[in-house]
Design brief:
Blueprint (H helix, E strand, L loop, with lengths): L16 H19 L11 E6 L5 H12 L3 E5 L13 H8 L5 E6 L4 H8 L4 E6 L5 H15 L6 E5 L6 H10 L5 E5 L8 H9 L4 E4 L2 H7 L2 E4 L10 H7 L18 E3 L20 H19 L4
Helix pairs in contact: 1-10, 2-10, 3-4, 5-6, 5-10
Length: 309
Amino acid sequence: MVDLKGKDILRADQFTRDEVELIIKTAQKFEDSLNKGRMLDNCRGLILATLFFEPSTRTRLSFETAMLRLGGQVITVADPQSSSVSKGESLHDTIKTVENYADVIVLRHPKIGAAAEAAAATERPVINAGDGAGQHPTQSLLDVYTILKEKGTIDGLTIACVGDLKYGRTVHSLAELLSLYKVRLIFVSPISLRMPAELINKLKEKGVPTEETEDLKEALKKSDVLYMTRIQKERFEDQTEYERLKGVYILTRSVLKDAKKEIIIMHPLPRVNEIATDVDSYEGAAYFRQVANGVPVRMALLALVTGRI
Ligand code: NCD
């Protein structure tokens, strides 16, 4: 029996396919309840702490919405300047404090490995909502959920990840999660923003067919899913390098002329300029539907790790 009770959610590669399927099945059930307007009380009496030491709109608000929809309650630090972190408190001590208030902790932090560090400090389940340029496993779960809803399957698809593959944590986690399926992955980026070599090697070892290219148009012709990402401005030491790269891939209606007819366009958001607004009305533009999927998927995660399923 797959059971996530008491587990931390730290990286996409921690999951077995059975665990991913359980999360998806649970999310489908919650989505169905939401659509029927049912009130749920799985997490009644439980408190979620959301600690966000980097900016966020969707991830924090969808986790909080998910907990409220499950009948639980939420406490939050959305701005590190307003917490004792600004006085120099260590992450360890912040977590040792918050564990006294909350039953489950969602953390976003600028440092790679911060969520694992937090998890080591507490018995409470810790969920990684993004650790610097590292991982963003809950985004990938909702991405996989979105692909399944939009395409009906994941096995057999060719999926292109485009943009900042070096610093983009969503694509790191997504590639790892997709390696549980029979997919082909195309990585489209400028040379200086390629997927980390260790990740490419890991995918190859698992037998996932991968291709790296700078050519978006070529990738488009072969892809069933186009996963666009933002160039991660805040990770660049040299801002002139960011300025040079920020317009490197811009998806417009006219670029999409070469695409497969049934292609879907995804993006974790926020977008800056990499998808023109004229794409929003394209049938395959799935990025706002993808946002909506964050709520049932995060409801599933909260209910599963708290054992309130
Ligand atoms: C992403 C993130 O924070 O990594 N946003 C999100 O969680 N939906 C993507 C990004 O900031 O570019």
